[in-house]
Amino acid sequence: MTTLLINIKELLQVRESSINKVSGAEMGILPTIKNAYLFIKDNLIAGFGSMENLPEIQSDKIIDATGKVILPTWCDSHTHIVYAGNREQEFVDRINGLTYEEIANRGGGIINSAKKLNETTEEEIYNQSKTRLEEVIKLGTGAVEIKSGYGLTLEGELKMLRVIKKLAKNYPVTIKATFLGAHAFPLEYKDNHQGYIDLLIDEVLPQIVQNKLADYIDAFCETGYFTVAETEQIMEAGISFGLKPKIHVNQFNSIGGIQAGIKHHALSVDHLEVMKKEDIESLKNTDTMPVALPSCSYFLSIPYTPAREMIAAGLPLALATDYNPGSTPSGNMNFVVATACIKMKMTPEEAINAATINGAYAMGVSETHGSITVGKKANLIVTKPISSYYQLPYAFGSNLIDTVFIEGNIIT
Ligand code: NIG
Ligand code: FE
User: Fold this and answer.
1) Which residues have C-beta atoms less than 6 Å from ligand 1?
2) Inter-residue contact 24 to 81 (CB < 8 Å)
3) Which of 40, 90, 198, 358 is deepest in the core (most CB within 10 A)?
4) What pLDDT, on a 0 to 100 scale, did the predictor assign at position 106?
5) pLDDT tens digit string along 33-45?
6) What does the alpha-carbon distance between residue 195 and residue 202 come to, in Å, rounded to a whole number?
């Protein structure tokens, strides 16, 4: 099956040869072709260029994209979209004055979601999660990382990871699974942290690996959650089983999680709302991708990741949603891109790079996703007719997506 898209107003993120990420000043450069064509063959990008150079191509289908912008689908490298129920009541409690931490300290938060998850059948969790996945695909997400971490028991964690595996099997988007058993300490382990860590390492992890249920390992390194030493134990165990770390750090406090992640060659360090100068310094010249989650900052009214300082220091930066029931009940990458521009002062070029190629890197899929490159998956966002790609962050509340292609097929 072949498809030819012609008269594309502007084709964004075109990279003749494959790159895996962009850093520092390069983030401000978004290569594009105006008045372009794009040729899809067997689910892959098979060619593209200026309409002036359109070769004679036989195609099963021709689509006229006059007035429309085309870009690679978003790569959302950090989500928790498999969960049960919601936490609307906590949302209202926060409106009425409680903080996220206060809610967590009285047994709400992650523990509340874990209780719901363990009381819900696997089938029901799958059904709730697939609705969220379908929604984000329509919003232009073509690759998504999904974490466990609302089980906090052997059975609960396995159940979540099986649901992620089933989503990956049943949907054409690329899904990476991350084991986040170290998300919070269950109440019964409040005073026995090592007991819970031993359970994760000695009982849960071997079963996950045996059943090939995870690609990465995560821990919530934060005051009141996992210390740096505890996070290191978890990362080391994951690495010994072949799982690279991708960790939650610096959401509320800077306690050394970034340095621990770098030491263990974490693929990414995520959140980064609270950054010290030395945290930015530590990330220089490493292979660890910093990931910002601006929808979380928005929803919790906490600081935004200091993107300008980080980019000025020559760092790369990725953007992801953090879609989860507590801190970010939204998986809309378009809103993330807009919020990064509006609140973090990223330029549209930087934000689009951060949400495509750098997002792909942060979930280990940059060989196949994140840019318009021959041989990469034909995962595309086709916009409605727009004046320029600046509209994407500018018209932050509008859905400007006309069509989404996943592996060359239109999602309906
Ligand atoms: O990334 N910070 C840790 N985990 C999630 C929130 C979890 C929750 O509140 O359910 C996050 O924000
Ligand atoms: Fe998260």
Assistant:
1) 109-110, 113, 220, 248, 251, 296, 322, 324-327
2) no
3) 358
4) 87
5) 999 999 999 999 9
6) 10
Within the chain, all domains assigned CATH 2.30.40.10 are found at 2-72+371-410
Closest CA to 243 of 169, 148, 359: 148
Half-sphere exposure of 72 (CA within 13 A, CB side): 34
Kindly give the distance from the C-alpha atom of residue 221 to the centroid of ligand 1, in angstroms, as a whole number. Answer: 11
Distance of CA 232 from the midpoint of ligand 1 (Å):
19
In tens, the pLDDT along 92-122 reads 999 999 999 999 988 899 999 999 999 999 9
> The tokens of 77 are what?
């490298």
Q: Write the DSSP assignment of 145-206 as a string of letters.
A: EEE--S--SHHHHHHHHHHHHHHHHHSSSEEEEEEEEETS--GGGTT-HHHHHHIIIIIIHH
**CB distance 319 to 292 below 8 Å:** yes
Ligand 1 atom with the shortest distance to the CA of 104 = 9
8 has which bridge partners? 36
For ligand 1, the distance from its centroid to the CA atom of residue 110, given in whole angstroms, is: 7
Six-digit token string for 357 = 């190629």
Across the range 220-247, mean pLDDT stands at 98
| CATH number assigned to the domain covering 75-362 | 3.20.20.140
Lookup result for tokens 């819970």: 196
Element (H, E) at 302: none
Q: Where in the chain is the domain with CATH 3.20.20.140?
A: 75-362
Residue 79 has pLDDT above 90, yes or no: yes
Residue type, 180: L
Question: The domain 2-72+371-410: what is its CATH number?
Answer: 2.30.40.10
Mean pLDDT score, 196-225? 98
Residue percentage of the chain with pLDDT more than 70: 100
CA of 55 to the centre of ligand 1 (A): 50
80, 90, 152, 222: which to mutate for ligand 1, most atoms within 8 A of CB? 80
Among residues 357, 260, 346, 333, the alpha carbon closest in space to that of 305 is found at 346
Contact 162, 175 (CB under 8 A): no
